[in-house]
Specification:
With about 240 residues, this protein is of the alpha/beta class. Helices cover about 20% and strands about 25% of the residues. The strands form six sheets. A five-stranded mixed β-sheet has the order 7-4-6-5-8.
């Protein structure tokens, strides 16, 4: 009941920590918060493929009256800082690519004729949109992953993106599983089960599996008969072995 749980928890404290490579910490608990040394994204970037433009240059674009602009180049994802965008012009841009200075809009490619040297824009619905500002996901110096977080696939990705090659995590708890009673035997004693004298200590296997699935390291302490002193001795031995 609640009283028994409280008694146990009163004697439980957080385990120590260890520093491990990022690739080894899936499922572990982060022991120390990780802050980002960089802004994510590191620059204003396009949230879709299209054309970087100034909103004022395309505000009147419609299917019936498209706006035509000269194309001054292409900005690929991973490109270095592009040159500033001239007024009345456009630059082809890919998702994630840096926005050129002066541009405040990315017109989705579906609203254009996909021109290379000159582009016709058929809709102004993207005016002042589709630009992700630097630091929108994570500002420099902010917490990327908080202490106490269980590290899953998403957290691994975030930690990698902020350069956390190693992280400090809580040590895995080692949980002893001890079966007691005069009737249970392990599988090597199954002949006794066949003769109807004993039963398999199946809960030993169930509990070990539960511990492993919960992130712990199960330690098989075997089976001890209904003897107070034998139980005491086995507990003391387990304490020394840890």
């Amino acid at each position: 009941g609640a009283g028994a749980s409280a008694l146990i928890l009163d004697h439980v404290s957080a385990l120590g920590s260890e520093t491990l490579p990022l690739a080894s910490v899936l499922g572990r608990v982060l022991a120390r918060e990780v802050r980002s040394p960089v802004a994510l994204p590191p620059w204003d970037n396009a949230s879709m493929d299209g054309y970087a433009v100034r909103a004022t240059d395309v505000a009147k674009a419609t299917r019936e009256h498209p706006v035509a602009l000269p194309v001054f180049g292409t900005i690929a994802a991973g490109a270095e800082t592009p040159p500033p965008l001239e007024r009345g012009g456009a630059m082809r841009i890919m998702t994630g690519a840096p926005i050129p200075q002066g541009a405040d809009t990315v017109i989705r490619v579906e609203d254009t004729d996909r021109g290379v040297d000159r582009v016709a824009i058929f809709d102004a619905r993207d005016a002042s949109r589709n630009v992700r500002p630097a630091g929108e996901d994570l500002a420099e110096g902010h917490i990327a992953v908080s202490s106490g977080t269980v590290i899953g696939p998403a957290q691994l990705g975030v930690l990698a993106s902020v350069g956390a090659a190693t992280v400090e995590v809580r040590r895995i708890p080692r949980v002893g599983i001890l079966a007691s009673g005069d009737e249970p035997v392990d599988l090597d004693g199954f002949d006794e089960v066949r003769r109807g004298r004993r039963i398999v200590s199946r809960n030993s296997y169930t509990m070990r599996a539960c511990v492993a699935l919960s992130g712990g390291e199960p330690v098989n302490l075997g089976i001890v008969g209904d003897d107070r002193e034998l139980l005491r001795a086995r507990f003391l031995r387990a304490r020394e072995e840890r």
